[in-house]
Design goal:
It contains 8 helices and 13 strands. It is α/β, with parallel strands linked by helices and 254 residues long. Strands 1, 4, 5, 6, 8, 9, 10, 11 and 12 form a 9-stranded mixed beta sheet that branches. It has a two-stranded antiparallel sheet with strand order 2-3.
């Protein structure tokens, strides 16, 4: 199964740390964020990796030349969902996708192997504890996810601690059937919403991955979840980066 890593954006909220490199190349505890992601998937033999790049992609190509690279040449004007679909040709047989700017460990991926849904989202259920350690100036939205039993029922962008079951970590697994549903939903939405607001975003072109998941939930597409704790970090700001280096990384379950 292929792994598609979405890493085209600049990571502007982390400036000046990202002025000379993409966010995924920031070192945390001695290795770039990208290497944390590659190591987590590699632990399970998932080494067939596609990287969708844009901002300073050459630095990633130099670091990890064995990855398959796809260029999102419109990265200043689009967003995560559009970036992912630059790699649509690799989706046929099912795939994992992951954000490129989050630290994950093998413990995050382990629950996927007990989950049989065609579309499964990774959820971090320790997000409230971690979020409470952020200083007020570092508060940023998380992708809070709500469930009913084995199914996801709602995803929202929320700020601060919340009653969400967990935070979407950016990692999703699609079976071949799930990938086809995802692709069909995307193309139907693109035809209907091009140039228009879509779900939580001001335009379809700049929407997020969770906007498409919200669209599928509205259509009663079943989406499962794979929950873990302390196996994921999102680093959005310089303050986050400092806390991650000093505290968060040492709390991770390997």
């Amino acid at each position: 199964m292929k792994v598609i890593i979405i890493g085209a954006g600049r990571g502007s909220r982390l400036r000046p740390l990202t002025d000379d490199r993409p966010k995924c190349m920031l070192p945390v505890d001695g290795r770039p964020i990208l290497q944390w992601i590659l190591d987590a998937f590699g632990h399970y033999g998932l080494n067939d990796v596609v990287f969708v790049g844009g901002y300073r992609m050459a630095s990633v190509q130099e670091y990890a030349p064995n990855l398959h690279f796809v260029l999102n040449d419109q990265w200043p004007h689009n967003n995560i969902l559009a970036s992912l679909f630059y790699a649509e040709e690799f989706m046929d047989e099912g795939f994992f996708c992951s954000y490129a700017d989050t630290i994950i460990t093998p413990a995050l991926l382990a629950p996927f192997f007990d989950e049989t849904s065609d579309i499964t989202l990774s959820l971090d259920t320790s997000s409230n504890e971690r979020y409470s350690q952020r200083p007020p100036q570092a508060h940023a939205p998380i992708e809070g996810t709500y469930i009913d039993g084995a199914r996801v029922t709602q995803i929202d962008r929320v700020i601060g601690t919340s009653d969400a079951y967990g935070e979407f970590t950016g990692v999703t697994r699609f079976s071949a059937a799930g990938a086809q549903i995802f692709r069909d939903t995307y193309h139907n939405a693109k035809e209907s919403y091009a140039g228009k607001p879509f779900q939580l975003s001001p335009s379809f072109e700049t929407c997020y991955l969770i906007d498409m998941y919200r669209e599928m939930l509205d259509a009663d597409v079943p989406i499962g979840h794979a929950a873990s704790r302390y196996s994921y970090l999102e680093i959005d700001t310089p303050e986050d980066y400092e806390i991650a280096q000093r505290e968060w990384v040492h709390q991770l379950q390997k």
